Amino acid sequence: MDYDRSWSELNERLREAETGGGLTAALAELERHQRDNGFIRDDLSDLQRHTYHHPTDPVLTFRIQYNPKRALRFSGAGLSTPPDNTESLNNGCFLCRQNIRWQQHQLQVGFEVKLTGDAYNALMNPFPLFPNHVVFAATEHIPQAWPMTKKANGGRKLPVLLRDLCELASRLPGHVAFYNGVDAGASIPGHLHFQVMRRLYTEPLFPLEQQVFELPHEDGGPEMAVDYPVEVALWRGSVARVADDASRWVASWAERNRSRIDMLSCNFIAAGHVADGDISLYFVPRLRARARWNGNHGLVGGLELLGELVLSTDEERGLLDSGLIDYGFVENALRSVRTPMFAS
């Protein structure tokens, strides 16, 4: 069947699923389709997850997942050179629909989702970290870099980016959504995208969500993490209120950090609340030079900042087998990428 026709027919089916059960139902159907046709390469059967409790406060935890197939993502899941008489756009960007067609042997099909600011293609990750691991890639090829640096020309303005991320989280209350900045976990910096993952039924709360936050010091300001290895700001409330308050505060934050702004990146993490439709939005400042917790390995993005470290190499498996990993190990790994909220 023609690829564009397959895309259109699947999208029609997924829109029907969304009408009946929301975006969550549509993404579940998309995942089933992509498993059935062989695009998703990992059923997560080899993934091992370990939970470590704080030595004196058992409510607090950190987590490790050992996911050996995740290491395969760097070799890609498809073609890197286009067939004869086929054009490669934007240097072969893996998130552009025109390239996906030839790169993935017409197996990868996405679901177009319209948010307030942009339209996005929901694309299943072939090497997932969680169930229903989806990449929301802007339909337009625009940079991932956030617009607070001189190097971010062409990127989305912060209010638009945050409104879309917050709206996405509110429409997927059983998931968490991330924006990873350049040198802060973004694996494809040339194309704007969010990561979305469904929570585990067995451990629905992430370690960051178990932490204590102090109340805001100003109207519209964030709560601040009290005792977490990285500095975290948090807003809670309606989509519109959170996106507006966070946009204003982060713009002010960037102005106060003007002297080092080109050295900085960031992560935003958004989570919807099932009960009342509100959301939580976390902001973590990052130094671009501190992208990894383990030398040349161990990229730190939104999932790691939530308190779940991802291991995938044989060397890292050796750390697990040695019994050297505990709560303090994960805490120190995250502390290695800590960036003060404001320069002293």
Architecture blueprint of SSEs:
Layout: H1 3-36, E1 48-53, E2 61-66, H2 97-103, E3 111-114, E4 119-124, E5 134-138, H3 158-171, E6 175-180, E7 193-198, E8 213-214, E9 223-225, E10 233-237, H4 239-256, E11 264-272, E12 279-287, E13 292-294, E14 297-299, H5 302-305, E15 308-311, H6 314-322, H7 327-335
Helix pairs in contact: 3-4
Largest sheet: 10 strands, antiparallel
Strand order of the largest sheet: 3-4-5-7-6-11-12-10-9-8
What form results from the Cα inertia axes?
globular
Q: What name is given to the CATH topology?
A: HIT family, subunit A
Calculate the terminal CA-CA distance, rounded to whole Å: 60 Å
**Residues in helices, as a percent range:** 25-40%
- Spans where pLDDT lies below 50 across 5 or more residues: none
Write the element-wise H/E pattern from the N-terminal end onward.
HEEHEEEHEEEEEHEEEEHEHH
- Reading off the top of the CATH hierarchy, the class is best stated as Alpha Beta
Q: Name the CATH superfamily assignment.
A: ATP adenylyltransferase
What is the number of independent domains? 1
Strand content: 15-25%
Total number of strands: 15
Number of helices: 7
Rounded radius of gyration (Å): 20 Å
Average pLDDT works out at 92
CATH architecture field:
2-Layer Sandwich
By secondary-structure content and strand pairing, the structural class works out as alpha+beta
